[in-house]
Design goal:
5-stranded parallel beta sheet; alpha/beta; Bact_response_regulator; 133 residues; phosphoprotein
């Protein structure tokens, strides 16, 4: 079973391209145009994975990541950006991102990372935090 993915990006072209590519691979894809919309959508729908842009007006990708992980600790989140730096990559990973991708990304690489993130999310976590998931 492929999984449900939420794509969050303020650029409509990117949202639509990712939605089409992922849907062709069998994923059930929804989109949001900002972090606040993503958080609201994740409150009423289940997602296996969120792919969020880093630079967005209002709530950026790091804030979106943090809010999603606070509410849904087991949710897998990939942060994608055209403004990659080692500092932002470290921050995203320390806040619980599954991965960090530089735009423009290679579609084969993206699909491998998406598949791995969803599979990792389906493995029950160990330890005390497992009860929260």
């Amino acid at each position: 079973m492929p999984g449900r993915i939420l794509v969050v990006d303020d650029e409509e072209d990117i949202r639509e391209a990712l939605e089409m590519i992922l849907a062709l691979e069998g994923y059930d894809v929804r989109t949001a145009d900002c972090g606040a919309a993503a958080i609201a959508r994740a409150e009423v729908e289940h997602f296996d994975l969120v792919i969020t842009d880093l630079k967005m007006p209002g709530m950026d990708g790091v804030e979106t990541l943090m809010a999603l992980k606070q509410r849904h600790p087991c949710l897998q989140v990939i942060v994608a950006t055209g403004y990659a730096s080692s500092e932002t990559a470290r921050r995203c990973m320390s806040e619980g991102a599954h991965d960090y991708l530089k735009k423009p990304f290679d579609m084969d690489e993206l699909l491998r990372i998406v598949e791995r993130a969803i599979a990792d999310g389906r493995v029950p976590p160990d330890g005390p935090s497992a009860q929260r998931c």
